[in-house]
Amino acid sequence: MKIIIIGLGNFGSSLAVYLTETGNEVIGVDNKMEKVDRLKDTIAHTVCMDATNEMAYEAVPLKNADIAVIAIGENEGATIIATAIIKKLSKAKIISRSLSAIHDTVLHAMGIEIIVHPEQEFAEALAKKINLKSMINNFELDPYHSISEIKALPEFEGKTLQEIDFRNEYNLNIITIIRKEVKTTLFGTRQSLGKVMGAVNKDTVVIANDVLVVFGANKDIAKFCSME
To answer: Tell me: domain 127-225, CATH 3.20.20.300, correct?
Structure first.
């Protein structure tokens, strides 16, 4: 996809790099040259411009963009103006960063459906990792259900999924297993990497250090994680 990211601070630049690494064509925009220079050799294209100046967008291929991400931080006014300009000039799907509840209200009134709160969302994810020690990663599907990566309990080692009986014992469904593999790098060092096993079945055996990818209700995932 062709993605334009407005604002190359910590959030915007990290997003730009990750989206580039996953095969997207990313154009990064910021009004500070040092931020633009930092990414010019990493992503497809960078532009130094004032995102609140409608005329400046002549340098950006908005009409060809699939998604525009407004990632500006610390300046609600600039975020709102940039969002309004892109909404006027492009049919791209807009994802806008919000800095406050009032900011949310304004963006909703503008018809922006996807609003993100990076700091809040990271804090919530980190709190879950701290409170639920077995949890590694978590993706909420709705307020009540999630897909989570959780550490296999020591007592699971050597048992099949049928023997563990996740569905009946823990009210959780196993999607797949991430298994650690040790590989030698080009520099001769050994590195531990997680490899997704793909589809698992009742005869799949859990081994030490496996990470289980499960689907279930948040309360059941939390209950399982508290068993460590």
So the answer is: no
Contact 85, 77 (CB under 8 A): no
**What's the burial of 189, exposed, middle or buried (CB within 10 Å: 0-12/13-18/19+)?**
exposed
204/202 Cα distance (integer angstroms)? 6
Are 31 and 94 in contact by the 8 Å Cβ rule? The answer is: no
What is the C-alpha separation between 121 and 98, in angstroms, rounded? 12
- 47 forms beta bridges with 29
Q: What is the pLDDT of residues 116-131, one digit of tens each?
A: 888 777 776 666 566 5
Decide if 145 contacts 216 (C-beta within 8 A).
Answer: yes
pLDDT tens track for 150-183: 888 889 999 999 999 999 999 999 999 988 877 6
Distance CA 71, CA 83 (A): 10
The CATH number for 2-118, chosen from 1.25.40.10, 3.40.50.1370, 3.40.50.720, 2.60.120.1440, is 3.40.50.720
Whole-structure pTM value? 0.61
- CA 214/CA 201 separation, integer angstroms: 13
Q: Within the chain, which residue ranges are assigned CATH 3.40.50.720?
A: 2-118
Q: What are the E-state strand segments in 89-199?
A: 93-97, 114-116, 135-140, 145-151, 173-184, 190-196
Domain with CATH 3.30.70.1450 in the chain: 127-225
Alpha-carbon distance values, 15 to 7, 22, 78, 111, 206 (Å): 10, 11, 19, 23, 34
